[in-house]
Amino acid sequence: MEKKQFKAESQRLMDLMINSIYTHKEIFLREIISNASDAIDKLAYRALTDEKVGLNREDFKIVVVPDKEARTLTVADNGIGMTQEEMENNLGTIAKSGSLQFKKETENADDAELDIIGQFGVGFYSAFMVADKVTVISKAYGGETAWKWESEGVDGYTIEPCQKDTVGTDVIMSIKANTEEENYDEYLAPYSLSNLIKKYSDYIRYPIRMEMEHSRQKPKPEDAGEDYKPEYEQVKEWETINSMVPIWQRPKSQVTKEEYNDFYKSKFGDWQDPILSIHVAAEGNFEYKALLYVPGQVPMNYFSTDFKKGLQLYSSGVMIMDKCPDLLPDHFSFVQGIVDTPDVSLNISREMLQHDRQLKVIANNIEKKIKSELVKLMKDDREKYQQFWTAFGMQFKYALMNAYGQNRDTIRDLLLFWSSKENKLTSLKEYVDRMPESQEKIYYVCADSVEHASKMPQAERVLKAGYEVLYLTVDEDEIVLQMLENAYDKPFVSVASEDALPVTDAEKASVEQAEKDHKALLDFAQETLKGEVSKVRISKILQSGAVCLTAEGPVSLEMEKYFRKMRR
Ligand code: ADP
Ligand code: MG
Fold first, then answer.
1. Which end of the chain is more exposed for a tag (fewer CB within 10 A), N or C?
2. Known binding-site residue numbers for ATP
3. What is the DSSP letter of 166?
């Protein structure tokens, strides 16, 4: 039989698959199953208008058959099937693959390869990561004969007519022999296959059926004696492996808090309930469902470099990316969850995903939603919010600094600071709402603890005037305020600043007089502290305190300390 050649591009991709060193070869199953599901989608759609199809929605299924002896794994569907021509065109070319284009444009091909395979899969060809031969037997809906397509890799493929009674497609993969690096046998074992199906294809809307083997206790014989020991037997049973209906596709009113929490814990491997579950069902121009969680504790690797932010991205029930970073801004990097939208293509590359307008709109909406839910939590359940703040508050500050304040409008409303008001944490909004009419600025003092802050001599004057003072106890806090620029149109000012409060002419005169009266003392102090301080002067900010240190210029003492620490 004549062997046909693949087009050049397909050959490259196939070569890449066959020699793949990629460690997540298991995703081939997701690709093959999603093709089966697509094919069923097409026939199911036909069936809506074409009575001759003779199938109802319940009749559609995907069947997975591992055969240990023959070393084959078959994925069979009763979808629309392929004609000879379609086989030639669809399995012999790779024209529409966006990921391949991406690869061509990338300089560092090795990294790009891993990226492509890891994030998006490459469709049908990924079967060659685990199989040294792939056979496709298909009968198209309305077609006369069935066709068999077969390939052992880059050197080409054959097509010949064959026997198949029912419409649909069987993809038969001859699984490779085990190597030192890879245990291919697991692709022939029902148990590990069922795990893969649950992991990657749980939400495919058609049943994925597989024969599972169970150990079952034999019924106790009637004449069993005292010393009867239960006997077991192996039984085989066809099971639907996938759950078919993802929790985020169900109406909110029908999902209990328990179910949200359980799903979170099993899906994201946490043993604690999340602080917040957010379920979004958006309709209209941009249709998507999202299920988002704010964890109750900081993940182990959160502040290390191997932590990856992102939401799981599904397209019509098929997972296409495990952690899509573009769906989450850095200040919400702690959020875990899932986005499901019908309008993102399965094989879209990361580059293209980044520029996807649809995804940008979704990301924006999600950001707004997370923010409003957190603001609501702060108002309704302060204790819980403070638990959240203790865990993730620092992330807001880092993200604010990293973005040079560009995200200030989102973050401003979520920050908490210690305050002289009852020595409690306050939000900036609460502070501003409490300001008496005469107060124009938001006061702060820097110290290494709330206790010290409340005793800083610099703060006394402002507190005496009846104004609230924020206690900045974290090194970064003062920079955070600078990044915020202001809060609700009120500027921030350090209590140590000479013009923190308006100065009267009488005060000015009295300071000038004191400078003259005590010139000898000031000179003495200045001489004694030479090299330690740049200037000793009379200050109007002190009340009962005798002396304090302050910085001249725009950078406060605490900031200077902070930057010095950073330099080290
Ligand atoms: P994609 O799914 O993105 O189109 P694939 O490489 O996964 O790319 O599949 C290539 C094409 O092969 C599909 O578009 C489809 O036309 C055809 N195909 C693959 N598997 C099947 C199947 N089980 N039934 C019918 N057609 C299929
Ligand atoms: Mg596909």
1. C
2. 31, 35, 77, 82, 90, 96-98, 119-124, 169, 350
3. S
> Cα separation of 354 and 251, whole Å?
30
Q: Is 79 in the pocket of ligand 1 (CB under 6 A)?
A: yes
Length of the chain (residues) = 568
Report d(CA 291, CA 271) in Å as an integer. Answer: 18
**Which residue puts its alpha carbon closest to atom 5 of ligand 1?**
123
Q: By the 8 A CB rule, do 273 and 264 touch?
A: yes
What would the two tokens of residue 175 be?
Answer: 């699984």
| Closest ligand to the CA of 347 | 1
pTM of the model: 0.63
What ipTM does this complex have?
Answer: 0.99
Q: Nearest Cα to 386, choosing from 321, 296, 474?
A: 296
Q: Whose CA is nearest to atom 4 of ligand 1?
A: 123
pLDDT of 92-133, one tens digit each?
Answer: 665 344 444 444 544 455 555 555 554 444 678 889 989 999
Atom of ligand 1 nearest to the CA of 42: 25
Is 123 close to ligand 1, i.e. is its CB under 6 Å away?
Answer: yes
* Helix (H), strand (E) counts: the chain: 18, 19
Torsion-angle region of 551 (φ positive above 0: left; ψ -120 to 50: alpha; else: beta): beta
Q: Whose CA is nearest to atom 9 of ligand 1?
A: 124
* Atom 10 of ligand 1: nearest residue by CA position: 90
DSSP letter for each residue of 464-496: HTT--EEEE-STTHHHHHHHH-EETTEEEEETT
The conformation of residue 543, written as its DSSP 8-state character, comes to: S
Give the ligand whose atoms come closest to the C-alpha of residue 75: 1
Determine the Cα angle at 559 with ends 553 and 565, to 5°. Answer: 135
Please tell me the distance from the alpha carbon of residue 183 to that of residue 287, in angstroms, as a whole number. 40
Between CA 505 and CA 88 the distance in angstroms is 92
DSSP conformational letter for 530: B
- For residue 307, how many other CB atoms are within 10 A of its CB? 14
- The answer to whether 198 touches 241, Cβ cutoff 8 Å, is yes
Question: Per residue in 500-528, pLDDT tens?
Answer: 877 778 878 887 888 788 888 878 888 88
Q: From start to end of 376-518, where are the E strands? A: 416-419, 425-427, 442-446, 469-472, 486-487, 490-494
Ligand 1 contact via 78 beta carbon (within 6 Å): no
